[in-house]
Each structure stands twice: as C-alpha cells, then as structure tokens.
C-alpha cells in the first residue's frame, strides 16, 4: 500500500504502522485507566492501532480522526471485524483546518509531527 501511495505522489503516512503508534498503544496498555470509561479522541489515527487499543481497554467512545478517508475506511472495517464498531467512530478531520477539536476526555496522537508545518498545527491544537 505504501508503495502505491508513494508511486502515485500521495501521502503514505496513514497506511503504515509507525513506531510512535505502537509506543502509544503500549502506553495505553500500561495505563488502561487512562481510557477506561472515557471518550478518547485519536488525532491522525492512521492504521487505527491506538483507537482499537483504547476501545479494547474499555473506552466508552473513541473518535478516530484522520485526513485520509482510506485509512478511516480500513479502520472502520477493522473495528467491525473486532466487534468494536459500537465504540469507534471515524471522522475526517484536518489538523490544519479551522474546525474545533471534538470534545473528549483524552486525546491521543502519535506520529503526526513529520513536517514543520504539521508540528505548528499540532501545537496550536494542543492549546485548544
């Protein structure tokens, strides 16, 4: 999938499992009370590992967001396959846009700081 995206000049980042996502999921597993019975917002959900992990650990609701509709469709399929589709909602959301962050108890984002421009947008979002 990554080769297809790269060859066609598109962003491959959301369809690849990156180390930061794995680390974030491990941190959630180490402290499950962080997400249990909470609403979790995943920014730049990509492959959905953090969203699936939060739902598995008992999050009441997980809103997985990304700018890439393909990654969100794949995540929705994975959630259905894992029986977590009642907990996980997907939503197209652009960190660089003006739409306010959705409300949540916990925000999770990993591997979204891969350009200076995106880093500035994430910093602005952290201030929200």
TrEMBL record:
<protein>
    <recommendedName>
        <fullName>ETFB lysine methyltransferase</fullName>
    </recommendedName>
</protein>
<dbReference type="InterPro" id="IPR050078">
    <property type="entry name" value="Ribosomal_L11_MeTrfase_PrmA"/>
</dbReference>
<keyword id="KW-0489">Methyltransferase</keyword>
<dbReference type="Pfam" id="PF06325">
    <property type="entry name" value="PrmA"/>
</dbReference>
<dbReference type="GO" id="GO:0032259">
    <property type="term" value="P:methylation"/>
</dbReference>
<dbReference type="InterPro" id="IPR029063">
    <property type="entry name" value="SAM-dependent_MTases_sf"/>
</dbReference>
<keyword id="KW-0808">Transferase</keyword>
<comment type="similarity">
    <text>Belongs to the methyltransferase superfamily. ETFBKMT family.</text>
</comment>
<dbReference type="GO" id="GO:0016279">
    <property type="term" value="F:protein-lysine N-methyltransferase activity"/>
</dbReference>
């Amino acid at each position: 999938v990554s080769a297809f995206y790269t060859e066609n000049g598109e962003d491959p980042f959301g369809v690849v499992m990156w180390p930061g996502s794995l680390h974030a999921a491990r941190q959630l597993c180490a402290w499950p009370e962080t997400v249990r019975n909470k609403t979790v917002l995943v920014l730049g959900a990509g492959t959905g590992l953090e969203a699936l992990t939060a739902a598995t650990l008992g999050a009441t609701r997980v809103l997985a967001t990304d700018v890439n509709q393909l990654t969100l469709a794949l995540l929705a399929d994975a959630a259905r396959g894992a029986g977590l589709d009642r907990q996980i909602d997907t939503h197209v959301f652009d960190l660089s846009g003006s739409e306010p962050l959705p409300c949540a108890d916990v925000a999770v984002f990993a591997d979204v700081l891969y350009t200076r421009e995106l880093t500035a947008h994430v910093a602005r979002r952290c201030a929200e």
